[in-house]
Amino acid sequence: MNRKRIMLSVVLFFSAFCGAKAEHQTCAPPVKAGNFTYTLGAGQKDSLYALTSEWILLYFYEPTCEDCRLLTEQIAGSEILNRLFTERKLQVLAIYPDNDRELWKSHASHLPEQWINGYDEQLSIIPQSNYLFRSLPALYLLDKEKYIRLHETTLEAIEKEISKVRGIKEESNNG
Questions:
Q1: Are the C-beta atoms of residues 162 and 80 closer than 8 Å to each other?
Q2: pLDDT tens digits, residue range 18-31?
Q3: CB 3.0–4.6 Å: which of 10, 23, 72, 83 could bond 157 by disulfide?
Q4: Residue 160: helix, strand or coil by DSSP?
Q5: pLDDT band at 134 (very low <50, low <70, confident <90, very high)
Q6: Distant-in-sequence, close-in-space partners of 43: CB < 8 Å, separation ≥ 6
Q7: Would you say 50 and 56 are in contact if contact means Cβ atoms under 8 Å apart?
Q8: Do residues 64 and 100 lie in contact, with contact meaning Cβ atoms separated by under 8 Å?
Q9: How far is Cα 33 from Cα 55, in angstroms, rounded to an integer?
Q10: Cα 105 to the center of its chain, rounded Å
Q11: Each residue of 147-173: b (16+ CB within 10 Å) or e?
Q12: In Å, what is the CA distance from 72 to each residue of 3, 57, 132?
């Protein structure tokens, strides 16, 4: 009986510590993002690991999704993300995780042209990677080493995480 209580206490502690509702973060050690290849407008291919900025906002979306359209506007209007984008410390990689090229192409103009906008021509991103999401849109924040800092998260959580990390860096640079 006492053993069960201890086990339950441990489980509850780690659930609280990891934050079951903590903005979709995990408390596990950082996980390296799976590399994948995506297709761009003219048919050229590129890969996640080719990106070199300090932060990568990986944005999985569906072209006709209303929630995706609204989130696109919110991301595009984010003061913090726009500042990082201007400083070349952030890249936004928007991925349509399907291969309907015509649907993707017909909605490509709905995303900011500074973003990298690709689709999964070979339908290989989801099966071969650690990007599992319950619904679209889905946001992942990656650092420059391609570790997933936040997964299936919110724009607010991303802004908070970046501000927290940048605040720490700015303090250490000033002291």
A1: yes
A2: 433 344 444 467 89
A3: 23
A4: helix
A5: confident
A6: none
A7: no
A8: no
A9: 13
A10: 22
A11: ebbbbbbebebbbebbeeebeeeeeee
A12: 49, 12, 20
What is the C-alpha to C-alpha distance for residues 56 and 141, in angstroms, rounded to an integer? 6
Check if the beta carbon of residue 77 is closer than 8 Å to that of residue 174.
Answer: no
Please give the model's pTM, rounded to 2 decimal places. 0.80
**In this structure, what token pair is assigned to residue 34?**
């799976």
- Cα–Cα distance measured from residue 159 to residue 167, given in angstroms and rounded to the nearest whole number: 12
d(CA 15, CA 124): 33
Biggest distance spanned by C-alpha atoms of the chain? 65
Query: Which residue is associated with the tokens 């003219």?
Result: 42
CA distance 109 to 70: 15
